[in-house]
Amino acid sequence: MAAILEATARALLRRVAIEQTEARLPSLSTMVLRDGEPVWFGARGAVEDGAAPTPATQYRIGSITKTLIAVLVMRLRDEGALELNDPLSRHLPGTPVGEVTLAQLLSHTAGLTAEPPGPWWERVPGADIGSLTAALDAGTARHRPGRRLHYSNVGFALLGEVVARHRATGWAEAAREEILQPLGMGDTTTRPREPHARGYAVHPWADVLLPEPEHDAGAMAPAGQLWSTCDDLARWVRFLSLGDPDVLAPSTLAEMREPIGVDDTDAWSVGFGLGIQLLRHRGRRLAGHGGSMPGFLAAVWGDPADGSGVLCLANTTSGLRPPLLTDLLDIIDAHEPVIPRPWTPSPADTEMLELTGPWYWGPAAFLLRLLPGRDFVLGPVNGQGRASRFAAKDDGTWLGLDGYYAGETLRVVRRPDGTAGYLDLNTFVFTRLPYDPGAPIPGGVDDKGWR
């Protein structure tokens, strides 16, 4: 583990100690990452027999399990086995909610009920998938599909079964072979192994504990079954932020991190992509997920921009306060701010250099600035308006990656002498002069010109 300053470590430990004491947590384990690598581990409290938690102590991670299910679904999409716009019925027939799409299930916008019928599923032994789907009815759909973000454990149970049917094995075995083994997460399991923390409820008005039950959740297991350690979850935080092409294509992981639903519509600080929870904090856009099962709370967050990350594990049903993790990021940022990497030149061919500089959409001034390779950014000079990154395609055009022009095609239209005449961006014409009379401006240009 990389070293940090003693003062930084003390400030981090103090914040963890305050949380464990004030929130009355039986134990709390935390880890901070820089550039995708752990730089600090801190724990307070005790697990069994008074032992202090270590980076190898297992805790139940609850809904962080969903992020692995989402990666498995996206792998199937990339293989061509399914499409995200497919209705559920194409892959799991016989449910009363077969019209919702896989993308809606992944993003919690399918409108399904949060919990399955029957007793509180997290505290009782789980039933099989046949019993779960048979218990679903017209009331399973609580909102019109696509209307709003409504978190659904049921939705991920159904996605887990979709994975199992395509892989002809259980979702957990698929996760082990396709995700956990490649990432070196050998201590992430469906049931606990020693050493592991026991789950407790803490009495609200007395300092006493009540052991919480732990069962195999059966068909609901894809929503929150897994156990893991700080060491393993550090690898998962690294993956969620920086990726691993052996597990998932970088473009697919970036797609999963795109915001689809917003959990707090007034502020937009918390939202969801495709199976990944998103959090905006002080200029950071973090990707991860929280987890909650009786006796356990967990959370992981990673920043794709610089590989910073943080995670925590606690063996309590409630009490852990959400600001803990962002506080830890703030502390290390304040004590040891990231030093930017040195700027170095990046070669560009003559054709691309010719495209740089100002372009005009009507009277609005834009700048085209090169990125590594043949990619570029086209955005307004004053920073107000539509800006997008564009990736070069093999056919000589460019594809919009984000913003208003995401998915749209840009092509360079050249003059007879081969020089760039104008940019054609999905019917929008960008020229070197405002309303250049020598370019095919839609609607034409007044013959008398500017006056």
TrEMBL record:
Residues 349-432 form the DUF7586 domain. Keywords: Hydrolase. It comes from the Bacteria. Residues 21-320 form the Beta-lactamase-related domain. One of its GO terms (molecular function) is hydrolase activity. This is Serine hydrolase. It comes from Sphaerisporangium melleum.
